[in-house]
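May I ask you to comment on the folded chain given beneath this request?
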Amino acid sequence: MTRGRRLMALGLLLGGLAVLVVLAGSVLLVLLRPLATFESVERLRLRWAGLERREAPAPRGPQVYWRGGSGPAVVFLHGANDQAGAWVRSVGPIMAARRVVLLDLAGHGDSAPAEGPLSVGDLVAGVEAVMDAEVAGARATLVGNSLGGWLALVYARSHPDRVAQVVLVNGAAIRGDGTEAAVNLLPRTREEARRAIEATMSPASPPVAGFVLDDLVRRSPGSPLARLMAQPARDDLALDGQLGAIATPVTLIWGVDDRVLPLAYAEKVAALLPAARLVRLERCGHVPQRECPEAFGAALEQALGNPPARTEAR
C-alpha cells in the first residue's frame, strides 16, 4: 500500500472513530439526561417551525417566549416543570391564520429567575409582561395546560378586556375535590415517579422507561414546582368561589384518562363558569398536546373558531 493510500485509510479510520465517539456521547446524554435532551429537541423544533425567540422585561428578570405567524394572537401557557416546546406539535396549523405566542413561564425553560425562590406572583407577573409586550391594545386567546390553565383564568379575571376567550387544557382552576389520584408530583423514588407518570397518561400510551423515571426523581428537588411549593400560597389569587365572575368564554379540552385532574373535576369547573363548553378527548391524559397532538389540535382549531355561549355550561 502506498503512503498516500495509508494516509487515506488512516483518515477514514479516524473519521469513523470520531463519528462513533459523537454517537456514543449522544447515547450517553440521552441515558443520563433524557428529559433535558427531550426539551432541547422540542426547542429546536420551535426554531424549525419558524418561531422567533424573544424576551420581555419582568420584575424577576427576562421572560422568554417564542412567536410566529400573523393575525389574532393565541398565547400558550404550559404546565409546571414544563416549557414552551410542549406545544410544538400543535402550533403549526394555528400559525396559518393566527399569531402564536408560546411562553416559558417564570422560572421555567429560559425565563428568569433561574434559581432561588419562585412564587405564583412571579408567574402572573411574567404572563403580564409578555402580554404587554406582544398583545398591548388587543385581545388574545389564552390556551393553558395544568398550571398554565389556572394562570389563564387568573389573567382573564384581572384583565377581562384583554382576553377574547380561554382554552383550559386539563387545567387547574380550583382546589381539588378528592377525585384526584393520590400521587406525589415531586417523586423521591422510581416507583413514586412511575405512579405520577401513570396518573398523567392514558393506559393506552407506551410505558415510560426506567432511566427516564430516574431522571425525573433526580430533577424533582430543584424543579420549578418544588420552588413554587416552598412558597406560601396567595389567597388573593385563588379562584375558589370566583369562577362565576369570569364572563370570558372558556372551552375545556380534557384528556379523559387524566387522574391528576379527572373528568369529574372538569365537569365541576365547567358548571361553575358562566360560558363554558367541555370537549372530551378519549385515550388522552393530563398533557394531550403531547400525548395525542392530532386530536388536541383538531379540538383547539374548533374552539378557536367557535367560542361557547353563556348558556352552554348549564
Summary: Residues 39-305 form a domain with the Rossmann fold fold (CATH 3.40.50.1820). Residues 21 and 27 are 10 Å apart (CA to CA).
